[in-house]
Specification:
Largest interface: A-B, 33 and 36 residues
Number of domains of chain A: 1
Distance between the termini of chain A: 26 Å
Structural class of chain A: mainly alpha
Number of domains of chain B: 2
Strand content of chain B: 15-25%
Shape of chain B: globular
Helix content of chain A: over 70%
CATH class of chain A: Mainly Alpha
Order of helices and strands of chain A: HHHHHHHHHHHHH
CATH superfamily of chain A: ABC transporter involved in vitamin B12 uptake, BtuC
Number of helices of chain B: 11
Oligomer: heterodimer
Largest sheet of chain B: 6 strands, mixed
Helix content of chain B: 25-40%
């Protein structure tokens, strides 16, 4: 355990202790043990489930970012690089404009997922032939992002029914207030995703060394990459349908981990990214709620404001 | 209280809905009517005050400035963005939404914490009347407030004119009131013929200046927020129609911007509409 890791653990404890106290309403320490108080309700029914959810969401975004950066051998890869997020956003906006379904309704969720699944289907259909290399996959993602974003802004510029309501702020990441059971379920799913990625991290290590090296190790690069892409794309679609797009967590956290902890393998990097990503998003969420109460900023705005300078920092350290 | 009135959004089992929500909602209202309300939009807050239900409102969102008593009510968030913690801190037993500020995820979470919601569409004159009657029927039965009676009379006796119109929400860049807005409904009710295409069935629409210039309504309405913006809009009108074929009419934002009974009480101030053309 190096010195950086000890410092990280200390900061992690501080953040985890501080975040539940950040929010629109002040809570006294004694309130959390007194079930008759409003503070008790807010602390246990709202803030703790929210903390669990941000830990899960931040962790899963950062670990998918790590996976993509390994799969594509590109440090600029993030969970939204394949255009899945744009597909979900487009589906949700179509549901709102065409069927008057606001963000958060089941029909809106279904539209978002159907749109993402269509893109995943296209991706999978082409990935064995046209998109055989990681570079082509990234280019496909860029193209899909451009096209879908254009369609999205075409719809938005046509009318402003979404402005001011939930949709626009949701574009920049907006976390719902989950019940404790749902938050625990979400955390369980994210740990399951992490466990799957960690178990198969050896394959990412092989792909990181290049397709030809992977082949010599007896691994099919195309097939392996497809399996990872299918799993991660589904998870990304779910997270975006759930909370919108939250920038920079999946991009900057793996880079920071590489600089701070110098992990020996992707397996270790995945675990570290999950931890740091979870803390990063929790802190950003706490700030978004405490900055100007009772207004709650979209959490993606805060992650970008913090993540942008951190990203530049990683560039500077790499140089 | 009908079970269907309880707005539902997040996935809940149908069984849970039928066997839990219905009896709960019925018993809640039957045993004790809610006394502490949070209103999530300025126009709804204004409507509640007009119906003598304002004393029940313990929380509302920003810009709820009418009537003046509403300014003293605790704020639970920005316009369109109520905060869950701030709502809870008001200890409400009912949260009221108008459909334009409705947040299904928040409503669902409130419901799971035992706080029911009611949603009212306030996007037309008829919907404002319907919401008023519902609120009175549910929470102040037997006594119809004078203001509602006056508004109904004003509306029934309104003078119908024959004019065509565009209603501007903003002049620069131009954005028009769509068919799903209260003001549009009001102007149509006064005999106005919309020149918006049938497919533009929405709340607000960004339009190009070209499109506006190509239209030839008898009237263009805009909300007068202050003298400066009114002057700027007048100048825009001169630019769009240099021959002044279209009458640009500023209407008082304080009286006509919100979907409540207030615009109906001031219908007589719009009597000048169409006089020049008839």
């Amino acid at each position: 355990m190096n010195k950086n890791f000890s410092t990280f653990a200390f900061i992690a404890v501080l953040i985890l202790a501080a975040v539940p106290w950040m929010g629109a309403e002040p809570i006294l320490f004694g309130d959390i043990f007194n079930s008759q108080t409003l503070g008790h309700r807010i602390f246990w029914e709202l803030r703790m489930p929210r903390l669990l959810m941000t830990l899960a969401l931040g962790g899963v975004l950062a670990s998918i970012g790590t996976t993509y950066q390994g799969l594509f051998r590109n440090p600029l890869s993030d969970p939204y690089i394949l255009g899945i997020s744009s597909a979900v956003l487009l589906g949700v906006v179509v549901a709102e404009i065409g069927f008057n379904q606001k963000v958060g309704t089941p029909i809106s969720f279904v539209f978002g997922m159907l749109s993402a699944l269509s893109l995943i289907f296209i991706l999978m259909s082409f990935s064995s032939s046209l998109l055989a290399s990681s570079d082509r996959l990234i280019l496909f993602g860029m193209g899909a992002n451009f096209i879908l974003s254009s369609l999205l802004f075409l719809l938005l510029s046509f009318q402003t029914q979404s402005v001011g309501g939930g949709t626009l702020k949701w574009f920049f990441g907006f976390l719902p207030w989950l019940k404790r059971g749902d938050a625990l379920f979400f955390l369980g799913v994210s740990l399951l995703v992490l466990a799957t990625l960690v178990i198969f991290a050896r394959l990412i290590d092989a792909l990181r060394m290049g397709d030809s090296v992977a082949r010599t190790l007896g691994i099919s690069p195309g097939g392996t990459r497809n399996c990872f892409l299918l799993l991660t794309s589904l998870v990304v679609a779910l997270t975006v349908s759930f909370s919108g797009t939250i920038g920079f967590v999946g991009l900057v956290v793996p880079q920071l981990c590489l600089i701070l902890f110098r992990p020996a393998s992707t397996r270790v990097l995945l675990l570290q990214s999950f931890g740091l990503g979870a803390l990063f998003l929790s802190l950003a969420d706490g700030i978004s709620r405490a900055l100007l109460p009772p207004f709650e900023f979209p959490v993606g705005v805060i992650t970008t404001l913090i993540g942008g300078p951190l990203f530049l920092f990683t560039l500077w350290r790499r140089s | 209280m009908k079970a269907s009135d309880l707005t539902r959004s997040m996935p809940q089992s149908l069984i849970g809905l039928v066997f839990t929500v219905m009896p709960l909602s019925l018993s809640l209202w039957a045993l004790e009517p809610p006394k502490r309300w949070v209103s999530t939009s300025p126009q709804l807050t204004e409507l509640l005050f007009q119906l003598d239900l304002g004393e029940k409102v313990v929380g509302t969102t920003d810009q709820s400035d009418y009537p003046s008593a509403a300014r003293k009510i605790r704020r639970v968030g920005r316009l369109f963005a109520p905060n869950l913690e701030a709502i809870l801190s008001c200890a409400p037993d009912l949260v009221l939404w108008d459909s334009s500020s409705f947040d299904p995820t928040l409503e669902s979470r409130l419901f799971s914490m035992g706080i029911p919601s009611l949603k009212f569409p306030l996007d037309s004159v008829e919907s404002v009347f319907a919401a008023s009657r519902r609120l009175i029927q549910e929470f102040r039965p037997g006594k119809k407030p004078d203001v509602l009676i006056r508004a109904e009379i004003e509306w029934d006796l309104r003078r119908k004119r024959n004019f065509s119109f565009i209603a501007l929400a903003w002049a620069d860049p131009p954005m028009v009131f769509g068919k799903k807005t209260f003001l549009f409904s009001l102007l149509e009710g006064l005999g106005g013929n919309s020149i918006l295409p049938a497919r533009w069935n929405t709340q607000y629409l960004k339009v190009s200046e070209e499109w506006i210039m190509a239209q030839n309504p008898t009237h263009l309405f805009y909300l007068k927020h202050d003298a400066l913006s009114a002057f700027a809009t007048k100048e825009q009108c001169k630019k769009w129609w240099p021959n002044q074929t279209v009458e640009c009419v500023g209407i008082d934002a304080e009286k006509f911007a919100r979907a409540s009974l207030t615009p109906l009480l001031f219908l007589s101030t719009l009597d000048f509409i169409g006089k020049n053309k008839q």
